[in-house]
TrEMBL record:
It comes from Paraburkholderia franconis. This is Tle cognate immunity protein 4 C-terminal domain-containing protein. Residues 1-25 form the signal peptide. Keywords: Signal. It comes from the Bacteria.
Length: 463
């Protein structure tokens, strides 16, 4: 196998090195390759190579554009072209830096490789090694290798012929209380690109398993502090049937779409948002040089929202129900600081649950509390609170007065009014158990006379 090809896979390069010492056939010193685990969490590598006066860039992972140019290079691809004298000189200097290392580092088992050189030195030595740390090498070695690699990736990305190039962009609009997100995949290269459909994606972040997912979001144009995001995968995809065998194939010059219906991670205000995101795809199937895991960013677009999200009480109720489920394992201990204002509900041993949510403000502490259940019109202690869970936003309606429309479906309990006669107390004890009330139903009276002031508390959708 040609040495420059060996460098295009750090894993293959490492396997060769481990099994045969250098594991490389004699090759011309002007042929070389370097792999860099870019600035991504899935260890997707970008590699550059030089052979016969031509460069080859295989960009599979997000890499910075270089000093003073923080904007990312979008997408993934394979690029080739005639190398400039300036870029050739950088690669020779990198080769010489590798060849000047008198003792090659020993890698720590299990560590992620950050740099992979594959070179032939002037003295005939052939070095192919995956480096997981520069700490044992002479000072400045890392900068002499990583910085020019970043610069060369940028140069080859901008000037190379697109043998293969996959880009993506996102659009999003409100639909049915969620956001309809469409990913547009664009092949601007000369070769068909194929990858496993989002119908197979896990839809969550897990760098150990290299789980596939897309994460998209928006940042408000007039306020960088206001943003939202969504994680996308098979559970949210709604056009799986468009792709036979769960594979998306994109011929050169064509586009394909994947649509999702999903909840964002939080509320946001109406207005114009800069929309973008990125994806990790564990299985690129074609072309051959891009096979394996990739991680890349999307092209930026604009999303306009005419209404706040959620747009009405019904959507708010559904969104809060989703958020309660998603945050159920996000527990807060007594004495912990409150990071997000809202209504929280206390839980104790054996998962006992307080009937009465508590409004807490950011910066306060989750309090110690004796939890209560209301049965037959009277409250009884069920033990101390040990943890708290998020229940609703601070401006949500978790209480309602008799005669009002019910703000949300679920179980409700009435609070005991003051000044009841003995007969009124008896009637209250008979009628004051929890009851299920549907959204927009009138909050009921209990036959206590003038009970228009009776306040009901929302228990949630519990039995």
């Amino acid at each position: 196998m040609n040495k420059v090809r060996v460098a295009f896979s750090s894993l293959f390069c490492f396997m060769l090195f481990s099994q045969t010492g250098t594991g490389m056939a004699k090759s011309d010193k002007d042929t070389m390759g370097f792999g860099l685990n870019g600035y991504n969490m899935s260890n997707a590598e970008s590699s550059i190579g030089l052979e016969d006066g031509k460069f080859l860039l295989v960009m599979k992972g997000q890499v910075k554009r270089g000093s003073g140019q923080p904007a990312p290079m979008h997408g993934i691809g394979v690029f080739e072209g005639a190398i400039s004298d300036r870029d050739r000189a950088k690669m020779y200097a990198m080769r010489n830096t590798v060849c000047s290392i008198k003792q090659l580092p020993r890698n720590t088992p299990g560590n992620t490789f950050i740099f992979v050189p594959s070179v032939t030195c002037d003295d005939g030595r052939e070095i192919a090694i995956a480096i997981d740390s520069f700490s044992s090498l002479p000072e400045g070695t890392g900068a002499k290798l990583v910085t020019p690699t970043e610069e060369l990736v940028k140069s080859f990305y901008e000037t190379g012929d697109k043998v293969a190039k996959l880009d993506a962009s996102t659009s999003m609009v409100p639909k049915d209380g969620k956001l309809l997100v469409t990913l547009k995949f664009i092949n601007s290269g000369h070769t068909e690109i194929a990858f496993k459909s989002p119908a197979t994606w896990e839809g969550y972040y897990d760098p150990m398993s290299k789980a596939s997912y897309a994460e998209v979001g928006g940042v408000k144009s007039t306020n960088e502090g206001e943003f939202f995001s969504l994680m996308l995968g098979r559970e949210q995809m709604i056009n799986r049937s468009d792709y036979h065998d769960d594979i998306i194939r994109i011929p050169p010059g064509q586009v394909r779409y994947a649509s999702f219906l999903a909840y964002p991670d939080g509320r946001f205000k109406k207005g114009r948002y800069s929309a973008g995101g990125g994806a990790v795809i564990r299985e690129i199937l074609a072309p051959e040089k891009l096979r394996g895991v990739v991680e890349f960013t999307f092209q930026d677009t604009v999303a306009d929202f005419v209404y706040d999200y959620p747009a009405n009480q019904k959507e708010m109720n559904a969104f809060e129900a989703y958020r309660r489920k998603r945050l159920f394992d996000d527990i807060h201990g007594v004495g912990d600081g409150v990071e997000e204002a809202g209504y929280y509900r206390a839980y104790g041993e054996d998962n006992k649950r307080d009937d009465f949510p508590v409004l807490l403000r950011k910066g306060e502490k989750f309090p110690g509390r004796t939890m209560e259940h209301q049965v037959g019109g009277s409250r009884k202690s069920i033990g101390p609170a040990t943890i708290w869970r998020w229940e609703a936003y601070p401006d949500s309606k978790v209480s309602a007065v008799t005669g009002e429309p019910c703000p949300r479906s679920g179980y409700w309990i009435p609070g005991m009014p003051s000044g009841l006669s003995a007969n009124g107390l008896y009637m209250f004890s008979l009628a004051a158990d929890k009851r299920r009330i549907a959204e927009n139903e009138v909050m009921p009276r209990l036959g206590l006379g003038n009970d228009s002031y009776l306040t009901w508390t929302w228990l949630g959708d519990v039995t």
